[in-house]
Structures are given as C-alpha cells and as structure tokens.
Amino acid sequence: MAPRTLLIPSFLDDHFPLLRHAFDSDCWQSVLLPPETGLADLGLRYIHSEMCYPAILIAGQILRALGSGHYDPARCGVLVGQVGDECRGSCLIRLLRRALDRAGYQATALVSLNIRGIDRPDRLTLHPAMVGKALAAAVWGDALAVVRDQTRPLEARPGAALALWNEWVDELGAQMAHVPSRREILRRCEEITDSFRRLDTIDRPVQDVAVVGEIYTKNCRLGNWGLRDYLAQNGCRVYAGGLTWQSLYFMDTRTLKGPAAHRAAYRAVRCAASALQQDLVDILRAGGFRTLPPLPRLKAESEGLAPLNVTVADGWLIAAEAAGWARQGCRKILCVQPFACLPGHIFGKGQYAALQRKLPGVRLVSVDYDASTGEGTVQSRVRMLLDESMEPSF
C-alpha cells in the first residue's frame, strides 16, 4: 500500500523543514503544514481559551488542513510532539482527539512523538535512522538560523539572506534521503557559514536583540506573530538559542528523573550530542558569528544567575540563555511566553525580576502572546525595548 500522509503542524520554523524528512518511511509521507491566518479563531471552536496559546494554534492548523480538501482524512495522521513533563501540552493529543472527533474526523490518526512512554497506543516508533536524521536537522537548523538572523539586517540586497536560507533548506532536504555522517554534518556547517559570510553586506547601525523564552513562541512565527521578521525589518540583529541547546537541556534535566537505565541512556546521548554542538559552535564563531556557549559551559557559567535546581518545563534554561547573551554584550533581551502557559509563567517569567537585578546594564522585557491580545499591544512592548536608549556598560 502507498504510505499515508503524516501532517506535521508548524513548530520550529528553522528545523521542521528539515526535520520532517526524518519521519518519511514506508508507512508515512510527511507534509509540513504552512502558517496561515485565522488559525486561533478556528482552534478556539474546539479548544478552551484557558488552554495555552500554542495548543489553540496547533488545533486550528490541523483542522484547517483537514478541511481544505487537499487530504483524505481517512488516510491521514497528525504528528503531535509531547514532552511528557509538567507542561499541559503533554495532554494535547487527548484534547486533539476530542476536537477531531467533534469536527467529524474520527478516522484521522493522531501520532505521538515522545520518548517518555505516554499515549503508548499512538506513539511513533523511533529507529536509529530517524534519530540520525533528526540530529542532522537540529544542527543544520541551528547553523542556518544563526547565520541568517545575524546577516539579515546588514544585507546589501534586501531578501538575500532569506533567499540563501531557502536554497540551503532545499539542498539539505535532498541530502536527508540518507542518514548524514558526523563528518558530513560538520562539513555542511562549514559550507553554510562560508556562504553567508560571502554575502554582500553594508556596514550600517544595528541593534543587538536576544530572544529567549518558551520553545514554540521563540521559534515559530505563528506563535510570535513574525517577531524575527519584525526585528530584522527594524534593523535588529537577532540572537536566539537553538534546538541543540533545548534538546541538551532536556537531556540534562531528565538525567535527574526516571529509572536508572533511562538516566544512564540520557547521559550517554547527551555526551555525544554535546561534542557535536561544541564543533558547531567552533565553526560558527570561526566564521565571525555569535552563539551561546555549548550547553555544559552555559550551565556552569549560569551558577548564581539561573536556578539550576529548577527543571520544570524550560526551568533554568531561559535565565541561562539571557545571562549568556548578556555576557556577550547583548543588553536588550526579549523574553517571550504564550499566555496561559502555567509552568512558563511560574518557572520562567518568575525569574525575570531577580535576573534583571543581577544583570546591571541589561534590559529584559517580557512579551505575552495570546488569542485575545492585540497586535498593537505586543508591538508596543517590543518597541519599548527597541526605542530605549542604553549607555554601553560592557
């Protein structure tokens, strides 16, 4: 039989165009759903407004795709990532099942992507080739995001950096037909860095702005309403931690939880992934681009600034990333969260005031995204940071 269609909601703009190839198999042909307007309104018909904003957007995107007529709902599955911790998103697959049933899509399968053993009947089976491709997608996605965001405000020809980014996504996507070796992954990172360094640029004044926060809101244009585009158009060089930092944080914190065998496996994978991330950082910095330190060093340098014993949701990572960018001279930091994300507000947003006191000369501005929030409200908070005059303190 021909493979069924696996619909993948937008989640990480810089990684899922590559990561989707990891899920292609004899059973599934993956399709990455495009960002569209009006998704929150559609999602709110089936998901309560008190649920977190990403869940509402994901529901709306799935329902829009199934109602478009482009796909046969009976031969479709929907990939749902689940962290499996204190985040309410870990219950998303059950909420979506009810929503799809109410909308008339009882035959559409929900496929859970998790490594925590939840929703076992719906869980996607992981295999070594899938993990190898996912690792390549994470590293390449991080490299492409760094070089694009730091080149974009200086490009001599508007749109050149984004066009080159798209070329690389197409080329690397074709390479994902097989599992890239470690040498191939790093060689491609060097080529990516060199190609962006050769782009024609103009020496013009720019603002350095770091973006930290919840993973979906930080990395998905649906969740942050095109924040990175808005910053680039306003002459900002954007700095943000990537998927390798988030994944290594997840592995680091999960070595403290679960059975001993699971903790040992996490430590082994973390060690190998950390070495690859170190090479990625070295390549990018040698090309003249800024990155956060590799996660083990970032964690060590955050002692006393981030609550390293807090491992709920994004835990100490948000504060650690903010402090890491501040140490590199980035004095304006946007902290983005989805409204109604309970762990994010308690364990993420709850750190901002203390962190602000510990980082003199740095300005942190918190921005919440929600279906009931107006675009003007969000942009006014962003402008409050961009328009503030700050004396150099580094």
Model description:
It contains 17 helices and eight strands. The protein is α/β, with parallel strands linked by helices and 394 residues long. Helix 1 (16-19) links the parallel strand 1 and strand 2 (28-32). Helix 5 (128-151) runs antiparallel to helix 6 and helix 5 runs parallel beside helix 12. It starts with a strand and ends in an 8-residue tail after the last helix. 46% of the residues are buried. The model has no long low-confidence stretch (mean pLDDT 90).
Strands of the largest sheet, in order across it?
Answer: 2-1-3-4
Mean pLDDT: 90
Question: Topology as H/E string?
Answer: EHEHHEHEHHHEHHHEHHHHEHHEH
Helix fraction bin:
40-55%
**How many helices?**
17
Distance between the amino and carboxyl termini: 62 Å
Report the top-level CATH class of the domain at 205-241 and 292-394: Alpha Beta
The beta-strand count equals: 8
What general form does the structure show? globular
Identify the CATH architecture of the domain at 205-241 and 292-394: 3-Layer(aba) Sandwich
**Overall SS class:** alpha/beta
- Oligomer status: single chain
Strand content: 5-15%
CATH topology of the domain at 205-241 and 292-394: Rossmann fold
Contiguous uncertain segments of 5+ residues: none
Radius of gyration computed on alpha carbons: 20 Å
Largest sheet: 4 strands, parallel
